[in-house]
Amino acid sequence: MKKIGTLLASTMLAVGFSASAMAADINLTISSWLPPSHPINTEMLQGLIGMMEEATDGQVSGEIKMGLAPPPAQMDLILDGAADITIIFNGYQPGRFVATKLIELPGYDGSAEAASVAYWQVHEKYLAQLDEFKGTKLIALTTHGPGHIHSNKPVNTLADLNGLKTRLGGGVSADVGAELGLVGIQVPAPKVYETLSSGAADAVAMNMGERLSFKLNEVAKNVYEMPGGFYRGAFAVLMSEDKFNSLPDDVKTALEDKVFGETASKMMGVAWDKSDEVAREATMAAGDNTIVTASAEDQAKFAEMAARVRTKVLAEISALGIDADAAAEMVKSTMASYGK
């Protein structure tokens, strides 16, 4: 039944996007590595398709295709022209993306929507000069909400995390994991359920929304949350430069002015926030799931750890010739004032 359900979900996803795509002059192939029901597919990429259709009066549409390449190979998929658009998680390729770790740092206060908008703005002002997405057309930047620890055993204090075998996605989550004493295990997000259910890991670092996306309510019934999060996770939506350059000028202008950039980034941040809210409610409603919020004492201890992580990461970014302190302050102030 599980395989049948997954097949039906995949079929519905493809049908949902192909109907409008068939009527469009330009149908873009959008690669995804997430489960069909994940908000990245149902809300973010679907939202992107809708925005492109509206902005171009139906000239441009898209079709999501699964399984074209593993998560770490998604950017290369675009560079090779095997797909037109994809979304990548920057942490899956250690060393390839450094400046993008800026938005993942603990200590920022605000929603995923605010963080995604701040991420785009700080990239435009400070980070774009590094050209870390070289060879592609960057069309959106986003970050999920605060990341917490989801475990298959009770965690009540910061000290309980020491030695816990934990799936870490890379990026700042790995830096924070080292401070916490976690034993890091790196597997792509779609493998999380299997990794936890098999006992290969005791816990996973993820945002709250993934409790539904990856069925953590079944295999990680304990949540240890740090107010503001232990970290965030950075994503980028990339398009083939060749494909973009091949579009008619009026279409390119419409996409640039009405869809790409801050507009699409904000839309995706809103979707992350929505998924976190829905998953939190489901976790609280589940009779056998528990959410423990870090005590004031543990929050103070983690603040010291977070300060060390920020110092380390900002030094890495500064070494690239970026005013990392100014960039971090821009993120902080933008998020603090967002929506006010």
- Structural classification: alpha/beta
The secondary-structure element order is HEHEHEHEEEHEHEHHEEHHHEHH
Low-confidence stretches: 1-12, 14-21
Number of domains: 2
Cα-atom radius of gyration: 20 Å
What does this molecule look like?
This protein has 340 residues and is an alpha/beta fold. The relative contact order is 0.17. Helix 5 packs across helix 12. The chain folds into 2 domains: 187 residues, D-Maltodextrin-Binding Protein, domain 2 (3-Layer(aba) Sandwich); 137 residues, Bacterial extracellular solute-binding protein, family 7 (D-Maltodextrin-Binding Protein, domain 2, 3-Layer(aba) Sandwich). 47% of the residues lie in helices and 17% in strands. The chain has a 6-stranded mixed β-sheet, with helices on both faces. Strands 2-1-3-10-4 form a 5-stranded mixed β-sheet. It contains 13 helices and 11 strands. The N terminus is likely disordered.
